[in-house]
Write a structure and sequence with these properties.
It holds the Pfam family AMP-binding. α1 runs antiparallel to α3, α3 packs across α4 and α7 packs across α8. The protein has 15 helices and 26 strands. It folds into three domains: 153 residues, ANL, N-terminal domain (Rossmann fold), CATH 3.40.50; 194 residues, ANL, N-terminal domain (Rossmann fold); 106 residues, ANL, C-terminal domain (GMP Synthetase, Chain A, domain 3, 2-Layer Sandwich), CATH 3.30.300. Strands 6-5-3-4-7-8-18-19 form an eight-stranded mixed β-sheet, sandwiched between helices. The termini are far apart. By secondary structure, the protein is of the alpha/beta class.
Length: 486
Protein backbone atom coordinates (compact mmCIF):
# COMPACT_ATOMS: atom_id res chain seq x y z
CA UNK A 1 0.00 0.00 0.00
CA UNK A 2 1.34 3.42 -0.95
CA UNK A 3 1.36 6.17 1.67
CA UNK A 4 -1.35 8.24 -0.05
CA UNK A 5 -3.61 5.17 -0.05
CA UNK A 6 -3.03 4.72 3.68
CA UNK A 7 -3.84 8.38 4.35
CA UNK A 8 -6.99 8.05 2.23
CA UNK A 9 -8.22 5.46 4.72
CA UNK A 10 -6.93 7.19 7.86
CA UNK A 11 -7.67 10.86 7.10
CA UNK A 12 -9.60 11.10 3.80
CA UNK A 13 -10.78 14.70 4.27
CA UNK A 14 -7.46 16.14 5.49
CA UNK A 15 -5.78 18.56 3.08
CA UNK A 16 -2.91 17.00 1.10
CA UNK A 17 -2.05 19.60 -1.56
CA UNK A 18 -2.54 23.36 -1.82
CA UNK A 19 -2.74 24.44 -5.46
CA UNK A 20 -1.34 27.58 -7.10
CA UNK A 21 -3.90 30.28 -7.89
CA UNK A 22 -3.48 29.99 -11.65
CA UNK A 23 -4.61 26.35 -11.48
CA UNK A 24 -7.46 26.65 -9.00
CA UNK A 25 -8.82 29.83 -10.63
CA UNK A 26 -8.21 28.90 -14.25
CA UNK A 27 -11.46 29.73 -16.04
CA UNK A 28 -10.15 28.93 -19.51
CA UNK A 29 -10.08 25.17 -19.05
CA UNK A 30 -12.42 23.42 -21.48
CA UNK A 31 -14.05 20.86 -19.19
CA UNK A 32 -15.93 19.34 -22.13
CA UNK A 33 -12.63 17.90 -23.33
CA UNK A 34 -12.47 15.72 -20.24
CA UNK A 35 -14.26 12.41 -20.07
CA UNK A 36 -17.00 12.33 -17.45
CA UNK A 37 -15.08 9.69 -15.54
CA UNK A 38 -12.36 12.23 -14.71
CA UNK A 39 -12.93 14.33 -11.55
CA UNK A 40 -14.23 17.86 -12.12
CA UNK A 41 -12.83 19.04 -8.76
CA UNK A 42 -9.45 19.15 -10.49
CA UNK A 43 -10.46 22.51 -11.95
CA UNK A 44 -12.66 23.94 -9.21
CA UNK A 45 -10.73 23.60 -5.95
CA UNK A 46 -7.80 25.45 -4.38
CA UNK A 47 -6.73 22.40 -2.39
CA UNK A 48 -7.06 18.64 -2.56
CA UNK A 49 -7.78 16.15 0.21
CA UNK A 50 -5.95 12.84 0.44
CA UNK A 51 -9.06 11.12 -0.92
CA UNK A 52 -9.23 13.44 -3.93
CA UNK A 53 -5.50 13.08 -4.54
CA UNK A 54 -5.77 9.30 -4.41
CA UNK A 55 -8.61 9.40 -6.94
CA UNK A 56 -6.48 11.44 -9.34
CA UNK A 57 -3.48 9.14 -8.91
CA UNK A 58 -5.53 6.00 -9.54
CA UNK A 59 -7.14 7.45 -12.66
CA UNK A 60 -3.84 8.75 -14.03
CA UNK A 61 -2.34 5.33 -13.36
CA UNK A 62 -5.11 3.81 -15.50
CA UNK A 63 -4.39 6.47 -18.12
CA UNK A 64 -0.74 5.33 -18.17
CA UNK A 65 -1.76 1.68 -18.37
CA UNK A 66 -3.95 2.40 -21.40
CA UNK A 67 -0.92 4.04 -23.04
CA UNK A 68 1.03 0.79 -22.58
CA UNK A 69 2.91 1.48 -19.33
CA UNK A 70 3.58 -1.66 -17.31
CA UNK A 71 5.70 -2.71 -14.33
CA UNK A 72 9.31 -1.72 -14.93
CA UNK A 73 8.58 0.70 -17.79
CA UNK A 74 10.80 3.76 -17.86
CA UNK A 75 8.96 7.11 -17.80
CA UNK A 76 10.70 10.46 -18.28
CA UNK A 77 8.88 13.51 -16.90
CA UNK A 78 9.99 16.88 -18.28
CA UNK A 79 9.32 19.81 -15.96
CA UNK A 80 10.30 21.63 -12.80
CA UNK A 81 7.64 21.37 -10.10
CA UNK A 82 4.26 21.70 -11.78
CA UNK A 83 1.09 20.16 -10.35
CA UNK A 84 0.90 17.96 -13.45
CA UNK A 85 4.41 16.63 -12.86
CA UNK A 86 3.69 15.86 -9.21
CA UNK A 87 0.60 13.89 -10.27
CA UNK A 88 2.47 11.93 -12.93
CA UNK A 89 5.35 11.28 -10.52
CA UNK A 90 2.95 9.68 -8.02
CA UNK A 91 0.92 7.89 -10.71
CA UNK A 92 4.12 6.43 -12.16
CA UNK A 93 5.07 5.09 -8.73
CA UNK A 94 1.55 3.69 -8.44
CA UNK A 95 2.15 1.92 -11.78
CA UNK A 96 5.45 0.41 -10.56
CA UNK A 97 7.31 2.27 -13.29
CA UNK A 98 10.80 3.78 -13.21
CA UNK A 99 10.81 7.59 -13.13
CA UNK A 100 13.41 9.94 -14.57
CA UNK A 101 12.71 13.68 -14.12
CA UNK A 102 14.37 15.91 -16.71
CA UNK A 103 15.19 19.61 -16.85
CA UNK A 104 12.92 21.38 -19.38
CA UNK A 105 15.88 23.60 -20.31
CA UNK A 106 17.75 20.62 -21.75
CA UNK A 107 17.94 20.68 -25.56
CA UNK A 108 15.93 17.99 -27.34
CA UNK A 109 19.12 16.18 -28.37
CA UNK A 110 20.23 15.84 -24.74
CA UNK A 111 16.79 14.62 -23.66
CA UNK A 112 16.87 12.00 -26.44
CA UNK A 113 20.33 10.85 -25.36
CA UNK A 114 19.39 10.60 -21.67
CA UNK A 115 16.27 8.63 -22.55
CA UNK A 116 18.33 6.19 -24.61
CA UNK A 117 21.01 5.82 -21.93
CA UNK A 118 18.46 5.07 -19.21
CA UNK A 119 16.09 2.75 -21.10
CA UNK A 120 13.19 5.20 -21.04
CA UNK A 121 10.06 3.93 -22.79
CA UNK A 122 7.68 6.90 -22.42
CA UNK A 123 8.22 10.65 -22.46
CA UNK A 124 5.74 13.09 -20.88
CA UNK A 125 6.17 16.88 -21.04
CA UNK A 126 4.76 18.36 -17.82
CA UNK A 127 6.40 21.76 -18.16
CA UNK A 128 3.19 23.76 -18.80
CA UNK A 129 1.32 24.39 -15.55
CA UNK A 130 -2.10 25.04 -17.09
CA UNK A 131 -2.27 21.66 -18.82
CA UNK A 132 -5.00 19.15 -18.12
CA UNK A 133 -2.93 16.12 -17.03
CA UNK A 134 -5.28 13.73 -18.84
CA UNK A 135 -4.80 15.45 -22.19
CA UNK A 136 -0.98 15.50 -22.26
CA UNK A 137 0.63 13.38 -24.94
CA UNK A 138 2.40 10.26 -23.69
CA UNK A 139 5.09 9.67 -26.29
CA UNK A 140 6.26 6.08 -26.67
CA UNK A 141 9.96 5.76 -27.48
CA UNK A 142 11.88 2.94 -29.12
CA UNK A 143 14.01 2.09 -26.09
CA UNK A 144 11.93 -0.77 -24.68
CA UNK A 145 14.04 -3.58 -23.21
CA UNK A 146 13.30 -6.73 -21.28
CA UNK A 147 14.43 -5.97 -17.75
CA UNK A 148 15.87 -8.73 -15.53
CA UNK A 149 13.57 -10.14 -12.85
CA UNK A 150 15.82 -8.88 -10.04
CA UNK A 151 15.39 -5.33 -11.34
CA UNK A 152 11.60 -5.63 -11.56
CA UNK A 153 11.46 -6.96 -8.01
CA UNK A 154 12.98 -3.68 -6.81
CA UNK A 155 10.30 -1.55 -8.51
CA UNK A 156 9.13 1.09 -8.20
CA UNK A 157 12.40 2.93 -8.69
CA UNK A 158 13.47 6.52 -9.25
CA UNK A 159 16.34 7.50 -11.51
CA UNK A 160 17.85 10.84 -10.49
CA UNK A 161 20.60 12.51 -12.47
CA UNK A 162 23.68 13.53 -10.54
CA UNK A 163 24.55 17.21 -10.81
CA UNK A 164 27.19 16.56 -13.44
CA UNK A 165 29.21 19.34 -11.79
CA UNK A 166 32.45 17.57 -12.72
CA UNK A 167 31.37 15.69 -15.85
CA UNK A 168 28.44 13.89 -17.50
CA UNK A 169 25.49 13.20 -15.18
CA UNK A 170 24.75 9.62 -14.13
CA UNK A 171 21.34 8.31 -13.07
CA UNK A 172 21.36 7.16 -9.44
CA UNK A 173 18.77 4.43 -8.79
CA UNK A 174 16.77 4.61 -5.56
CA UNK A 175 14.02 2.53 -4.03
CA UNK A 176 11.11 4.08 -2.15
CA UNK A 177 12.67 2.75 1.05
CA UNK A 178 15.78 4.85 0.42
CA UNK A 179 13.76 8.04 -0.13
CA UNK A 180 11.71 7.50 3.03
CA UNK A 181 14.81 6.64 5.07
CA UNK A 182 16.35 9.93 4.00
CA UNK A 183 13.19 11.82 4.95
CA UNK A 184 13.10 10.32 8.45
CA UNK A 185 16.07 12.19 9.87
CA UNK A 186 15.20 15.51 8.25
CA UNK A 187 11.56 15.66 9.39
CA UNK A 188 12.60 15.02 12.99
CA UNK A 189 15.30 17.70 12.95
CA UNK A 190 12.99 20.27 11.30
CA UNK A 191 9.93 19.44 13.42
CA UNK A 192 7.70 18.55 10.46
CA UNK A 193 4.21 17.57 11.63
CA UNK A 194 0.92 16.68 9.96
CA UNK A 195 -0.20 20.31 10.13
CA UNK A 196 3.04 21.58 8.54
CA UNK A 197 2.96 23.07 5.04
CA UNK A 198 6.04 22.52 2.86
CA UNK A 199 6.59 24.56 -0.31
CA UNK A 200 7.71 22.60 -3.36
CA UNK A 201 10.45 25.16 -3.94
CA UNK A 202 13.04 23.07 -5.82
CA UNK A 203 12.73 21.22 -9.14
CA UNK A 204 11.90 17.53 -9.23
CA UNK A 205 14.74 16.85 -11.66
CA UNK A 206 17.06 17.42 -8.68
CA UNK A 207 17.18 15.07 -5.71
CA UNK A 208 16.46 17.95 -3.30
CA UNK A 209 13.14 18.62 -5.03
CA UNK A 210 12.12 14.97 -4.83
CA UNK A 211 13.18 14.93 -1.16
CA UNK A 212 10.47 17.53 -0.45
CA UNK A 213 7.84 15.13 -1.80
CA UNK A 214 9.10 12.30 0.40
CA UNK A 215 9.14 14.44 3.56
CA UNK A 216 5.57 15.49 2.80
CA UNK A 217 4.49 11.89 2.26
CA UNK A 218 6.42 10.66 5.30
CA UNK A 219 4.54 12.99 7.66
CA UNK A 220 1.20 13.24 5.83
CA UNK A 221 1.62 17.00 5.98
CA UNK A 222 0.54 19.53 3.32
CA UNK A 223 2.36 20.22 0.07
CA UNK A 224 2.08 23.79 -1.24
CA UNK A 225 2.74 24.01 -4.97
CA UNK A 226 4.58 26.96 -6.49
CA UNK A 227 2.69 29.49 -8.56
CA UNK A 228 3.74 32.70 -10.26
CA UNK A 229 4.32 34.51 -6.96
CA UNK A 230 7.09 32.34 -5.50
CA UNK A 231 8.15 34.56 -2.61
CA UNK A 232 4.59 35.44 -1.63
CA UNK A 233 3.91 31.70 -1.39
CA UNK A 234 7.07 31.28 0.68
CA UNK A 235 5.59 33.61 3.29
CA UNK A 236 2.48 31.42 3.61
CA UNK A 237 4.06 28.03 4.41
CA UNK A 238 5.80 26.65 7.49
CA UNK A 239 8.69 24.79 5.81
CA UNK A 240 10.85 25.21 2.70
CA UNK A 241 14.13 24.14 1.12
CA UNK A 242 16.16 26.92 -0.52
CA UNK A 243 19.50 27.50 -2.18
CA UNK A 244 21.46 30.66 -1.20
CA UNK A 245 20.34 32.63 -4.28
CA UNK A 246 16.67 32.00 -3.43
CA UNK A 247 17.32 33.00 0.18
CA UNK A 248 18.97 36.26 -0.85
CA UNK A 249 15.99 37.10 -3.06
CA UNK A 250 13.54 36.14 -0.32
CA UNK A 251 15.23 38.52 2.12
CA UNK A 252 15.14 41.28 -0.54
CA UNK A 253 11.43 40.53 -1.08
CA UNK A 254 10.77 40.97 2.65
CA UNK A 255 12.65 44.27 2.65
CA UNK A 256 10.45 45.51 -0.18
CA UNK A 257 7.26 43.96 1.25
CA UNK A 258 7.56 44.25 5.05
CA UNK A 259 5.55 41.57 6.85
CA UNK A 260 5.86 38.80 9.39
CA UNK A 261 6.01 35.62 7.28
CA UNK A 262 4.41 32.40 8.54
CA UNK A 263 7.43 30.34 7.56
CA UNK A 264 9.24 28.84 10.55
CA UNK A 265 11.87 26.44 9.16
CA UNK A 266 14.16 26.71 6.10
CA UNK A 267 16.63 24.02 5.01
CA UNK A 268 19.56 25.51 3.10
CA UNK A 269 21.88 23.71 0.72
CA UNK A 270 23.43 23.63 -2.71
CA UNK A 271 26.58 25.61 -1.93
CA UNK A 272 28.34 27.69 0.72
CA UNK A 273 25.82 29.36 3.07
CA UNK A 274 26.92 32.84 4.23
CA UNK A 275 26.31 33.25 7.97
CA UNK A 276 25.11 36.82 7.30
CA UNK A 277 22.03 35.36 5.59
CA UNK A 278 21.21 32.89 8.36
CA UNK A 279 21.64 35.69 10.92
CA UNK A 280 19.01 37.75 9.09
CA UNK A 281 16.63 34.79 9.18
CA UNK A 282 17.20 34.40 12.92
CA UNK A 283 16.33 38.07 13.42
CA UNK A 284 13.03 37.40 11.64
CA UNK A 285 12.29 34.50 13.98
CA UNK A 286 12.91 31.90 11.26
CA UNK A 287 14.96 28.82 12.13
CA UNK A 288 17.37 27.83 9.37
CA UNK A 289 19.26 24.59 8.89
CA UNK A 290 22.51 23.95 7.06
CA UNK A 291 23.29 20.59 5.58
CA UNK A 292 25.37 18.38 3.34
CA UNK A 293 23.91 15.90 0.92
CA UNK A 294 24.17 14.29 -2.48
CA UNK A 295 22.11 12.52 -5.11
CA UNK A 296 23.58 9.11 -4.27
CA UNK A 297 22.27 9.33 -0.68
CA UNK A 298 18.77 10.54 -1.74
CA UNK A 299 19.54 14.09 -0.48
CA UNK A 300 20.56 15.28 3.00
CA UNK A 301 23.17 13.29 4.96
CA UNK A 302 24.42 15.73 7.62
CA UNK A 303 22.43 18.70 8.98
CA UNK A 304 22.11 21.10 11.92
CA UNK A 305 20.46 24.31 13.01
CA UNK A 306 22.50 27.09 11.42
CA UNK A 307 25.08 28.74 13.67
CA UNK A 308 28.36 30.63 13.31
CA UNK A 309 30.33 27.43 12.64
CA UNK A 310 31.28 26.64 9.03
CA UNK A 311 30.50 22.96 9.61
CA UNK A 312 27.67 21.23 7.75
CA UNK A 313 26.19 19.49 10.77
CA UNK A 314 25.84 16.05 12.27
CA UNK A 315 25.04 12.65 10.81
CA UNK A 316 21.30 11.98 10.51
CA UNK A 317 19.63 8.60 11.24
CA UNK A 318 19.85 5.73 8.71
CA UNK A 319 23.26 6.95 7.50
CA UNK A 320 26.78 5.75 8.31
CA UNK A 321 30.03 7.58 7.66
CA UNK A 322 33.76 7.48 8.19
CA UNK A 323 36.72 9.50 6.99
CA UNK A 324 39.45 7.63 5.14
CA UNK A 325 42.48 9.83 4.42
CA UNK A 326 40.13 12.84 4.71
CA UNK A 327 37.66 11.44 2.15
CA UNK A 328 34.01 11.09 3.22
CA UNK A 329 32.81 7.49 2.92
CA UNK A 330 29.09 6.76 3.26
CA UNK A 331 26.55 3.96 3.40
CA UNK A 332 23.14 3.26 4.90
CA UNK A 333 19.47 2.79 4.03
CA UNK A 334 19.47 6.01 1.95
CA UNK A 335 22.20 4.87 -0.42
CA UNK A 336 21.29 4.31 -4.07
CA UNK A 337 21.34 0.80 -5.48
CA UNK A 338 23.83 2.06 -8.05
CA UNK A 339 23.90 3.89 -11.39
CA UNK A 340 21.68 2.83 -14.28
CA UNK A 341 23.64 1.50 -17.24
CA UNK A 342 22.46 0.57 -20.70
CA UNK A 343 23.58 -2.50 -22.64
CA UNK A 344 24.34 -4.50 -19.52
CA UNK A 345 22.27 -7.42 -18.26
CA UNK A 346 22.44 -6.29 -14.62
CA UNK A 347 21.38 -2.72 -15.57
CA UNK A 348 22.52 -1.28 -12.23
CA UNK A 349 26.24 -0.62 -11.71
CA UNK A 350 27.15 -0.67 -8.00
CA UNK A 351 28.59 2.57 -6.64
CA UNK A 352 30.23 1.09 -3.53
CA UNK A 353 33.80 -0.13 -3.19
CA UNK A 354 34.88 -3.66 -2.23
CA UNK A 355 34.12 -2.97 1.45
CA UNK A 356 30.57 -1.73 0.79
CA UNK A 357 31.21 2.01 1.20
CA UNK A 358 30.46 4.83 -1.24
CA UNK A 359 33.53 7.05 -1.69
CA UNK A 360 32.19 10.58 -2.14
CA UNK A 361 35.43 12.27 -3.31
CA UNK A 362 34.61 15.01 -0.80
CA UNK A 363 37.51 16.13 1.38
CA UNK A 364 36.55 16.82 4.99
CA UNK A 365 37.47 16.81 8.66
CA UNK A 366 35.42 15.96 11.74
CA UNK A 367 35.43 18.12 14.88
CA UNK A 368 33.28 17.01 17.85
CA UNK A 369 31.20 14.82 15.49
CA UNK A 370 30.47 17.76 13.18
CA UNK A 371 31.54 17.47 9.55
CA UNK A 372 33.54 20.26 7.92
CA UNK A 373 33.79 20.05 4.12
CA UNK A 374 37.16 21.19 2.77
CA UNK A 375 36.42 20.68 -0.93
CA UNK A 376 36.48 17.95 -3.53
CA UNK A 377 39.57 15.91 -4.30
CA UNK A 378 38.82 16.12 -8.02
CA UNK A 379 38.75 19.94 -7.88
CA UNK A 380 42.21 20.28 -6.32
CA UNK A 381 45.15 21.36 -8.51
CA UNK A 382 48.86 22.07 -7.99
CA UNK A 383 50.43 25.51 -8.43
CA UNK A 384 54.18 25.83 -8.03
CA UNK A 385 54.28 22.65 -5.96
CA UNK A 386 51.49 23.83 -3.63
CA UNK A 387 48.10 22.10 -3.39
CA UNK A 388 45.28 24.51 -4.23
CA UNK A 389 41.80 23.61 -2.96
CA UNK A 390 39.42 25.93 -4.86
CA UNK A 391 36.70 25.74 -2.20
CA UNK A 392 39.07 27.22 0.41
CA UNK A 393 39.65 30.32 -1.74
CA UNK A 394 35.95 30.54 -2.64
CA UNK A 395 34.91 30.49 1.03
CA UNK A 396 37.23 33.40 1.85
CA UNK A 397 36.09 35.46 -1.16
CA UNK A 398 32.43 34.80 -0.30
CA UNK A 399 32.97 36.47 3.07
CA UNK A 400 33.25 39.79 1.24
CA UNK A 401 29.90 41.63 1.43
CA UNK A 402 29.75 42.57 -2.26
CA UNK A 403 30.29 39.04 -3.61
CA UNK A 404 27.28 36.90 -4.54
CA UNK A 405 28.96 33.82 -6.06
CA UNK A 406 32.45 32.74 -7.09
CA UNK A 407 34.22 29.75 -8.65
CA UNK A 408 37.98 29.18 -8.66
CA UNK A 409 39.35 27.19 -11.60
CA UNK A 410 42.90 26.37 -12.74
CA UNK A 411 44.55 28.06 -15.72
CA UNK A 412 47.55 26.32 -17.27
CA UNK A 413 50.84 28.13 -16.61
CA UNK A 414 54.29 27.26 -18.01
CA UNK A 415 56.14 28.30 -14.85
CA UNK A 416 53.79 27.15 -12.06
CA UNK A 417 51.84 24.36 -13.76
CA UNK A 418 48.51 26.02 -12.95
CA UNK A 419 47.36 29.32 -11.47
CA UNK A 420 43.95 30.13 -9.91
CA UNK A 421 41.39 32.11 -11.92
CA UNK A 422 38.12 33.51 -10.49
CA UNK A 423 34.76 33.47 -12.25
CA UNK A 424 32.71 35.77 -10.07
CA UNK A 425 29.33 37.43 -9.66
CA UNK A 426 29.21 40.64 -7.63
CA UNK A 427 26.00 42.05 -6.16
CA UNK A 428 26.58 44.99 -8.49
CA UNK A 429 27.51 44.86 -12.20
CA UNK A 430 30.98 43.41 -12.79
CA UNK A 431 33.70 46.07 -13.02
CA UNK A 432 37.46 46.51 -12.67
CA UNK A 433 36.85 48.76 -9.66
CA UNK A 434 35.04 45.97 -7.80
CA UNK A 435 37.84 43.53 -8.64
CA UNK A 436 40.46 45.95 -7.29
CA UNK A 437 38.45 46.49 -4.09
CA UNK A 438 38.17 42.74 -3.63
CA UNK A 439 41.91 42.21 -4.07
CA UNK A 440 42.64 44.88 -1.47
CA UNK A 441 40.26 43.21 0.99
CA UNK A 442 41.90 39.81 0.45
CA UNK A 443 45.34 41.02 1.55
CA UNK A 444 46.21 39.23 4.77
CA UNK A 445 43.38 36.73 4.31
CA UNK A 446 44.88 34.65 1.47
CA UNK A 447 48.43 33.52 0.77
CA UNK A 448 49.80 35.34 -2.25
CA UNK A 449 50.02 32.21 -4.43
CA UNK A 450 46.28 31.61 -3.87
CA UNK A 451 45.27 35.02 -5.26
CA UNK A 452 43.41 34.69 -8.58
CA UNK A 453 45.51 35.99 -11.45
CA UNK A 454 42.44 36.84 -13.57
CA UNK A 455 38.76 37.59 -12.97
CA UNK A 456 35.85 36.82 -15.29
CA UNK A 457 32.18 37.72 -14.94
CA UNK A 458 29.98 34.76 -14.02
CA UNK A 459 27.07 36.49 -15.79
CA UNK A 460 28.97 36.37 -19.09
CA UNK A 461 29.64 32.66 -18.65
CA UNK A 462 25.91 32.08 -19.10
CA UNK A 463 26.25 28.49 -17.89
CA UNK A 464 23.16 26.35 -17.68
CA UNK A 465 22.37 24.97 -14.25
CA UNK A 466 20.40 22.03 -12.93
CA UNK A 467 18.42 24.36 -10.71
CA UNK A 468 20.76 23.86 -7.75
CA UNK A 469 24.37 23.91 -8.89
CA UNK A 470 26.42 25.45 -11.67
CA UNK A 471 28.52 22.85 -13.47
CA UNK A 472 32.25 23.31 -12.91
CA UNK A 473 32.98 21.27 -16.02
CA UNK A 474 30.87 23.67 -18.12
CA UNK A 475 32.60 26.64 -16.50
CA UNK A 476 36.00 25.10 -17.25
CA UNK A 477 35.02 24.65 -20.91
CA UNK A 478 33.82 28.26 -21.12
CA UNK A 479 37.02 29.51 -19.42
CA UNK A 480 39.19 27.58 -21.87
CA UNK A 481 37.33 29.19 -24.77
CA UNK A 482 37.85 32.67 -23.28
CA UNK A 483 41.56 32.12 -22.72
CA UNK A 484 42.14 30.65 -26.18
CA UNK A 485 40.28 33.51 -27.88
CA UNK A 486 42.44 36.20 -26.21
Amino acid sequence: MFLWQRYTRQKPQDIAIILPKQISKNTNTNKSEISSRYPTFLFTKSQLTWQELNTLIEQLSQHLKQAGVQKGSGIALIGKYSFTQVLYYLASLHSNARILCLNPNFPASKIDLLCQQNDIDYLIDCSHESQNPFSIAITQLNNTTNLPVEILNNCPLTLTLTSGSTGQPKAAVHTLTAHLANATGVVKLMQVKAESVWLLSLPLFHVSGQAILWRWLHQASKLHLVGEEFYAALCQVTHASLVPTQLQRFLSYLNENPQQPQIQHILLGGSHIPTALTTQLHQLGICSYSGYGMTEMASTVFAKKSDTSSGVGFLLPHRQTKLVEQEVWLKGHCLALGYWQKNNHRKIRPLTNATGWYQSKDKAKMINNELFILGRFDNMFISGGENIQPEEIEAIILQQPNVEQVFILPQADQEFGHRPVAIIAFKQPFSLTLVQQLEQNLVGKLEKFKFPIRYFSLDLANTSTNGIKISRSQLALWLSQQINSN
